[in-house]
Amino acid sequence: MKKVKMIILLAALGLFASNSQAQGFGGSGSKYLQLGLGINNHYSIYSDYDRMYNNNFGAFNLQMEFGIHKYVGLGFMIGAQVGIGNIGYYGPYAPGLTGSPYWSFGLPVGFIGNFHFLQLISDKAGKSFADKLDVYAGLNIGSGIAFRNVRKKYKDDVFYDSNVGALLFFGPHAGIRFFPKENIGIYAEAGYGKSYITGGVVFKL
Hints:
Elements: H1 2-22, E1 31-40, E2 43-46, E3 49-53, E4 55-67, E5 72-89, E6 97-115, H2 117-125, E7 133-150, E8 163-178, E9 184-191, E10 197-204
Antiparallel strand pairs: 1-4, 1-10, 2-3, 2-8, 4-5, 5-6, 6-7, 7-8, 8-9, 9-10
């Protein structure tokens, strides 16, 4: 009889674990790895210019998220990005002057926090529509190294050379994950800060 009870208990625990993994967001103890491509716009700070805005960045992002609560996850992201832009000088000698096209390369590193509200709605409604789907919103903040290569200088008295600086980003984001298979899915994310828009593949670990 004890063996039968033990078998039933183990079967129930196995069923519970299976259902937890089937959820779009598994809550505390869950882990997610995202690999994606996107477009972003980051501020880069250099010693010869107080602020420079980077345009048309293409980026690769690797992101890890760890569930710390039934509906909350924290994590980090790292990436690599390449882009082009223009250095603009704004001052008393040349107000509104723009020029000096450049290409740049950046290595952003940041932290993320997500609230998975679709799982909360699913639980409150007593429905199972969040089994394969996860919708979340959160904040991101980070920095990193920026490399600038100026292709053409001003012909006037204002000059900017190639340089090494620092990235700076902060902002909100929202995303959606869909898991056609238990541990592999796709995701899309939009916002401001670490990226305007990004998408790719997500793995439950």
